[in-house]
């Protein structure tokens, strides 16, 4: 019953502390052991900048795809898609999925361009500085830090709310305790640690999500996909969703869903392009892995919000009228929906305490995994783009790593404090989700054009995001006041004001950039990006080499490798257009009509979404092991050799053995023949 605290809070606070603190620290300890294993048997040292920041640019396709899935495995995504399915019906989870996939496809294009044009890059911001100078660098440092801060804050707010709903743990306690384990293993392992822990987190999350979707479909109140449709038809008789055709749950013609999809899509473009962790993972990927890894991960991830939102979100509509539901006999309040309680209440209804514990692990794994990537991104900004650039340009590798560690710790604490302040200010998950696009979007077109358009001028890169931000905020607040006559939390999180703010921020910055560039265009030479250097172990670092003539500059990749990467650029561009057309035109628009899903179509819709979810499990959890089988085999072979007392091979011998196992040994002629940027 609603009045029963046990019904609303199925798990004890002890369980909450055990997961948030115990599991977090266990992952930290596990990563310490893994890092030492990699250092001893594969020579991968996380106390070197190239490994800490970009994982020695050696991550394969499988692990890259898993990392992309994990990077988008936001706790807020899993929670919010269920809430939107409950609010707007069957169309909303699809638009959530489409909004995520198109951004990852675009980032695939940017990642492969970055790999070709800036082979020694570490962060997107050092690229901005090299092309446009100090002023632009400062502007984009601010924009990227705001993106990272708001991303982490949204994740912590959403996750902390769900943990409170499941365990009764005080929301401020979970807010501050969530980052602890993440800080530990991020400091110890760097970016490679985030790839490896991303994999473990994603494995656990995907297994539990597959189980949750099946449990929702096969519980006593629903008992199968066909019965699920019948129950929704019955619920439709007493449900009227404003803006939906006939007010139906089962129609794709949904005004609320399409507005949500647009706002969410605009915001997610920025969460990819202005989030430096995505650029870092692109730099970290092996040259052959960047394009297929990103593309495969993006396609696979589509199933997560689609399947979870469709099953759990729609099931909440049915179960809310059942004694199984925690709030029965009352409906959920607006505050509960906006705080993200739709998914936990649904899981509690169909799987009891076991389901609640499973969801607790899902939320914890999701928030810690994505937070780890954000911590690495911010640490790279603090160490490379601020400390190494302006405070100590001759910093040694050891000094850069030390600053990175301090930034990880400091940002983790500050993000928790900021999330606490927003919570006490009345800001919830729903407000953060709709608000993000307006604030973080203005920089994405100028940032993208930095590596795509050689004509964009310095003035355009600096001024356009500032004007776009001002225009977006004005449109957002102005339309909220025009529609509702006041500015409050409720009016500023409303759909239409947030949509106008997002659209204005998105397109005005692009328009400003083009206009300012046309006044005085730049003719940038891409070869300048080749002047960026790697960080050398144990020696003072210099960000850019000096040459008298750019004709002296040669690309570090051989000609054969560059030809393959240039083909990958074309494939990525074509694939991105195809994915955009399929997910935004070919698939959804024929359904956007005066029609309610019939039973066979609904059953196919749900079954395909669940099958796709299991495909995502394969891509993110099984394929990386297969793809990395040679490196894993080599590591265990060396470990077994050491255990038998034969010792480890000399470094040169080990490197040759690893190269042979990877099948990537180039002939001397191929390896030394320089290529050209296209």
UniProtKB/TrEMBL annotation:
Residues 653-663 have a biased composition (Acidic residues). Belongs to the sodium:solute symporter (SSF) (TC 2.A.21) family. Keywords: Membrane, Transmembrane, Transmembrane helix. It comes from the Eukaryota. It is found in: Membrane. The chain crosses the membrane at residues 15-38, 59-82, 94-116, 137-163, 169-188, 200-217, 258-278, 299-319, 356-382, 403-425, 431-453, 460-484, 499-519, 570-590, 602-626. It comes from Bionectria ochroleuca. It is a multi-pass membrane protein. This is Urea active transporter. Its main location: membrane. Residues 648-678 are annotated as: Disordered.
């Amino acid at each position: 019953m609603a009045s029963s605290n046990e019904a609303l809070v199925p798990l004890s606070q002890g369980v909450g502390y055990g997961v948030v603190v115990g599991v977090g620290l266990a992952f930290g300890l596990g990563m310490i052991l893994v890092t030492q294993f990699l250092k001893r048997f594969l020579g991968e040292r996380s106390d070197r900048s190239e490994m800490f920041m970009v994982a020695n640019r050696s991550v394969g396709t499988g692990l890259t795809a898993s990392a992309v899935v994990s990077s988008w495995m936001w706790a807020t995504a899993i929670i919010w898609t269920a809430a939107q399915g409950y609010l707007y019906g069957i169309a909303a989870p699809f638009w959530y999925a489409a909004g995520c996939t198109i951004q990852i496809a675009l980032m695939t294009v940017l990642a492969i361009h970055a790999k070709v044009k800036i082979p020694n890059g570490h962060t997107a911001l050092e690229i901005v500085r090299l092309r446009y100078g100090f002023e632009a660098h400062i502007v984009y440092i601010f924009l990227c830090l705001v993106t990272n801060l708001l991303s982490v804050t949204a994740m912590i707010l959403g996750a902390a709310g769900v943990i409170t709903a499941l365990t009764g743990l005080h929301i401020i306690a979970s807010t501050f305790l969530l980052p602890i384990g993440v800080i530990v293993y991020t400091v110890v392992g760097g970016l490679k640690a985030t790839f490896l822990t991303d994999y473990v987190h994603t494995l656990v999350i995907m297994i539990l999500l597959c189980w949750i979707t099946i449990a929702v479909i096969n519980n006593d109140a629903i008992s199968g996909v066909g019965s699920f449709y019948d129950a929704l038809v019955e619920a439709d008789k007493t449900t009227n969703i404003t803006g939906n055709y006939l007010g139906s749950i089962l129609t794709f013609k949904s005004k609320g869903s399409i507005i949500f999809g647009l706002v969410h899509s605009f915001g997610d473009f920025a969460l990819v392009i202005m989030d430096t962790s995505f650029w870092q993972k692109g730099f970290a990927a092996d040259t052959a892995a960047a394009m297929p890894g990103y593309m495969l991960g993006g396609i696979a991830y589509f199933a997560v919000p689609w399947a979870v939102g469709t099953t759990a979100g729609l099931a909440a509509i049915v179960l809310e009228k059942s004694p199984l539901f925690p709030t029965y006999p009352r409906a959920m309040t607006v505050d509960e929906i906006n705080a993200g309680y739709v998914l936990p209440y649904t899981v509690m209804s169909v799987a009891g305490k076991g389901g609640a514990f499973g969801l607790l692990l899902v939320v914890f794994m999701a928030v810690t995994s994505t937070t780890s990537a954000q911590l690495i991104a911010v640490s790279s900004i603090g160490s490379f783009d601020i400390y190494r650039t302006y405070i100590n340009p001759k910093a040694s590798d050891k000094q850069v790593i030390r600053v990175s560690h301090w930034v990880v710790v400091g940002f983790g604490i500050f993000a928790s404090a900021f999330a606490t302040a927003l919570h006490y200010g009345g800001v919830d998950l729903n407000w953060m989700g709709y608000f993000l696009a307006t604030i973080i979007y203005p920089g994405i077109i100028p940032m993208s054009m930095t590596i795509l358009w050689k004509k964009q001028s310095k003035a355009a890169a600096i001024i356009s995001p500032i004007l776009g931000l001002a225009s977006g905020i004005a449109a957002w607040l102005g339309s909220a006041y025009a529609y509702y006559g006041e500015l409050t939390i409720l009016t500023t999180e409303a759909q239409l004001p947030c949509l106008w703010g997002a659209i204005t921020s998105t397109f005005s910055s692009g328009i400003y950039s083009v206009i300012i560039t046309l006044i005085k265009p730049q003719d940038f030479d891409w070869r300048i990006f080749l002047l960026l250097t790697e960080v050398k172990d144990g020696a003072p670092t210099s960000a850019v080499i000096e040459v008298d003539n750019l004709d002296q500059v040669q690309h570090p990749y051989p000609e054969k490798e560059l030809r393959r990467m240039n083909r990958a650029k074309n494939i990525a561009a074509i694939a991105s257009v195809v994915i955009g057309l399929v997910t935004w035109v070919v698939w959804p628009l024929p359904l956007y009509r005066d029609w309610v899903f019939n039973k066979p179509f609904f059953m196919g819709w749900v079954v395909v979404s669940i099958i796709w979810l299991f495909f995502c499990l394969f891509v993110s959890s099984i394929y990386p092991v297969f793809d990395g089988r040679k490196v894993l085999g080599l590591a265990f072979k060396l470990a077994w050799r050491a255990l038998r007392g034969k010792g480890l091979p000399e470094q040169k011998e080990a490197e040759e053995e690893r190269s042979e196992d990877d099948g990537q040994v180039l002939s001397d002629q191929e390896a030394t023949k320089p290529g050209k940027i296209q």
